[in-house]
Amino acid sequence: MKQLDVCLTPDLLHLHKMDNCIVVVADVFRATSCMVTGLAYGVKSITPVATIEECKFLQDKGFFAAAERDARKVEGFDLDNSPFSFMDEKLIGAEVAMTTTNGTLSIAKAKASAVKVMVGSFLNLGALAQHLRSEPYDVLVLCAGWKGRPNLEDTLYAGALAEALKDQYMLLEDGTLMAQRLYNQSRDNLLGSVSNSSHVRRLQRLGIQKDISYCLQTDLYDVVPVLRGGALVAMN
Questions:
Q1: Of 48, 134, 223, 234, which has the maximum CB count within 10 A?
Q2: Is residue 79 classed as helix, strand or coil in its secondary structure?
Q3: Cα separation of 190 and 21, whole Å?
Q4: Distance (Å) of CA 21 to CA 16, 115, 139, 142, 180
Q5: Which stretches does DSSP call E strand in the chain?
Q6: What is the pLDDT of residues 145-154, one digit of tens each?
Q7: pTM
Q8: Of 211, 214, 165, 216, which Cα lies nearest the Cα of 189?
Q9: Residue ranges of domains in the chain
C-alpha cells in the first residue's frame, strides 16, 4: 500500500525518504493559495524561484513578477503575495515569476529529489486528493512553515490531506498522525483554530484579514498545479 508522510518544516526534509515520492508543498498563508488561485483564474504558468535576484531576472525577461519577504511586497515588483492580486484579468494567459519567504524555497528544496512536485492548499484540497488517489507513488506533504519552524495552518492542511487519503495511503509516522488529529479536532472551525497562530497575528498586523479567511476555504477550485520544466502549470 502507498504511504503518506508529513514533513513539518523544510529544515527537516533531509530526514524524509523522497525517492518514489510525490512532494506536495503547502504554504497556506499565502504562497500556494496564490498559485492555485492564479492558475484557476487563467494564469498560464507560475515559475517559483528561491531568491529575489532570480525573480528580478525573470521580470526583466518579460514575466509578471510577485515577490514577498516577511509577508510584505518587495519594492519594484508587480504583485504581492495576496491571492486577490492573482485574480487580475491582465494575468490571464501570462507567465508569472514568484518568490516568497517560505513557499517557493520549499519547492526549490523538493524538486531535486521528488518524482513530482505538486502544490496544495485548502482551496484545491478535494481535487488534489482525487488526483493523488490515481497516482502509484508515495506522497510527502512538505509544510513550508515559517523560516524553518513549523506552523499551524500548514500542519492543519497536511492533516486534512492525510484524512482525505487515509483509505488509500498508510499513515505511519507520528508527524502525519499529529497533523491528522489536529485537523480532525479543528475541521469545524479552521479560522478559530488558527486565530492566535503566529502567522495570523503577523498578517493581521498588516491588515489583511480577508486573505486569512479566503485561504481557509475548502474546495473552491478543481485546479491541480504541477511543476513541469521549472514552472507550475495546471494539470490537464
A1: 48
A2: strand
A3: 28
A4: 10, 5, 5, 12, 20
A5: 2-7, 21-26, 45-48, 64-69, 72-73, 95-99, 116-120, 138-143, 169-170, 225-228, 231-234
A6: 998 999 999 9
A7: 0.95
A8: 216
A9: 2-226
